[in-house]
Amino acid sequence: MNKKKKLTPGRIVLILFLIIVAVVQLFPLVWLINFSFASNTEIFASSSLLIIPEEFKIDNYIKAFTDGNFLHYLFNSLLVNTLAVLIVLGISILSAFACMRMRWKLSGLVRTILLLGMMIPIHATLLPNYIIFDSLKITDTLWALLIPYVAFSLPQGVFLTSGFISSLPYEIEEAAVIDGCGIFRMITRIVTPMLKAPLVTVAIMTYLNNWNEFMMAMTYLRSPTWKTLPFSVLEFTGQYISNYGAQFAVMALTAIPAVVAYIILNKHITKGVALGAVKG
Amino acid sequence: MNKLYSNKAIIAILVAPGLLMFLFAVLAPICLSVYYSLTDYSGLGSFDMIGMANYQELIKDETFWLSLRNSALLAVGFIVIQHPIAILTAVVLDKLQSKAEGLLRTIYFIPNVISVAIIAYLWRFVFNPNFGLLNNLIKSFGGEGGINWLGSGYAIWSVLIVLIWHGFGWGMLIYYAGVKGIDPALYEAAYLDGCDEKRALWHITLPMMKPVIQVNVTLAIISALKQMETVYLLTRGGPGNESQFMANYLYEQAFRSFRYGYGNAISVVFIIICLLATLIMNRVFRERKA
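^ inputs. structure came back:
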């Protein structure tokens, strides 16, 4: 290819462009971390972009960690999201197999119905679900989060897995049937292992969608028992309303788990987003 | 094989969980919403059926139209500002083939993995009139500063900035995957024929990316309609209703103004608008393809 790697003026302009975009995307976060180590007086006296704190106020982080309920809410987030991912994967595989492989008249219709959820705005169900959950006495329980999280991640799961299942060759299943394999063993032992790629994508998309969710949690939960990580920020900032350094610290702290997970799973997430988005 | 694969009992067991989930968490609430939208329920106590009165009021409700206008503004912001920069970034990133490619891609996407709660509160500080980053930036260029970015006249634009900034990495990544999917042989052939890079961008990259662009534009319009969390935490739709969006408005009506029935009427219209938007976008792009 005739791609030059020399530093031509054109190339410098392009590199500059990329760097400017990167600075715009990253600088607010750098600023966040910088101010999270500062004291209130330093923050209010600041007129430059970044400040060099006289002493690094680790204290801000200690407050954020203990009074922000960090570990408790992090555990809840991990639990709710992991359960949601597992349920979404399970239901997606079953529905996709039923709609793409089993022979029945309504398979197309049922698949369309399952995909319909993709078009329904999740926040339109906030008001009625509040009444439904309340009358079933499941507000303030794990179910109040799990049910909507699963329901609104399921369409994408069904879409991705069913697309992939239809591309698998029939021969393997035929051979298994001749060997006397039943449907459920077929799904768990033969089909599921072949679906690894789309399942990873579904898991990542489900995590990304639900990890940051707080509107449902805010509406359906009252006590701290099942509240998720965003509430560390929402509650702590209300509690430390005049301690800005500590507020910066709680934001930086609660951002860490997702950012670390992203950096570790970078490749999978990049692939997952690309695969998951092209659903037209 | 045939007999096993058409076993009705097995089929029923396989589709039951998915369908139950849909019925319970999607269809049932929508039906309930339609029912309550015909009442004057406040959220507590008794209520009466009032027919279509909520819908009649909604048509004349200026805030509702303002929310739609704000969604339209956001969609335009996504399409005119966010997406062109995202496409350009993706193309340049691919073209430079620099060692920093992976690092830059990671940086662009980081805001996306951070919770909306953190992003919204961070930007409340960025917009802060006393110590905010934006005012300090203006001061460092010799300006006055001290602007209340979430105040009247500024609020909706500030909300747009945050949303465009936050979603940038997502769009960029999808375009990036699109660029990577183009067959390099196309460029080689074009360069052999004496095509320069600008023309290659116009005549190869963009046309090849058309399906990706169409999907992304559709997603942008839908997400502009569905916007809620960031607005809820940044401005609560205020000051007044200047930066109001539909989802936030229905929530406020139900839980803060205690007009649960009216909130549900907004919900129902909200669903219809989203469905229509999806169908129209699919229709528009399908016709173009043909």
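Chain B has a mean pLDDT of 89. Chain B has one domain: 37-289.
thumbs up if we can close this ticket
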